[in-house]
Amino acid sequence: MSKEKLVTIKEADITNNCPECFNQDMKITFFQKHTYGKLIHRTTNEVTHQIQCKKCNSIIYPVNWTDDIEKIFDYYQKMATPHKTSIQFTSLFYILILLLAVSIGAGVYLYMEGGITF
Cα 43 vs. chain centroid, distance in angstroms? Predict the structure, then answer.
């Protein structure tokens, strides 16, 4: 089972009016999804976003966005550059590959010496 984690790649304070409480103190955050497993760590290209009011702590969904919020979102979306998509293998993966190679080599050696017959 792999774990998923959202890593913050860009965060900024914006001064648009909140559609809920009409305060001008909001925060926009862009996240990139990373998955962590026993054999590999993967950085995906999936980027999500969240706009939250700092006063009323409500999340502003795209349905409630004003034209100003959409313009600010487009601006910050261009600035949020995600990390490259990558796969990193863990040390457990390399240990398993090494054990597999050693066991195949030992099997071939024993077969060539006549210790194993099929």
Answer: 5
